[in-house]
Amino acid sequence: MAVHRDFIFRDFKSVEALAQALRDAAPLFYSQDFPEAFDTAVILDKISAKQARLPKPALFCLTELIDNIRKHSEYSASPAGLALFHRSESIEVLSFNRITAMRKTELEEKAASLSRHSLKQLKKRYTQAVQTSPSPNPGLGLIQLMIKTDKEYRHNFIKFEEEIYFLQYISIS
Amino acid sequence: MNQIARIPEFKIHAKKNLLSLQGRSIPEDPRPYYNDITEKAKSHLESMQAACTLEIHLDYFNTASALYLYQFLRFYQEKSSEGSIIRWCYDKGDADILEAGKDYEEMLDIEFEFQEKTL
Question: Helical H runs in A26-161?
Answer without folding.
Answer: 40-50, 56-71, 101-115, 119-132, 140-148
